[in-house]
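Write out the 3D structure for:
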Amino acid sequence: MSAPEPKKFEPKVPVQLNPPKNDPISVEELSKCDVFAGKDASRALAQSSLKPEDCRAEWQDLGEKEKTVLNDWFSFFSKRYNIVGTVAAASNL
């Protein structure tokens, strides 16, 4: 029996999410977004940074604290938004 998932980052109003998709999403399609446009923002999210130079996929070398922050962001977003695919060119999966 697994432990219940903690309520951390739960939305105030419950969100009905669709099952995750695994459709490839091109970098060009991502470039229609904001400061993270067309980039893997993993490192920037882990470092709580909005600097364009921090928007890159390399996060494996970060400290445990930053990896925890990145995991918290994943929890936050996954409880609010449907997963619509994966970045086609991602090398950090």
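The helical segments are 27-30, 42-46, 64-78.
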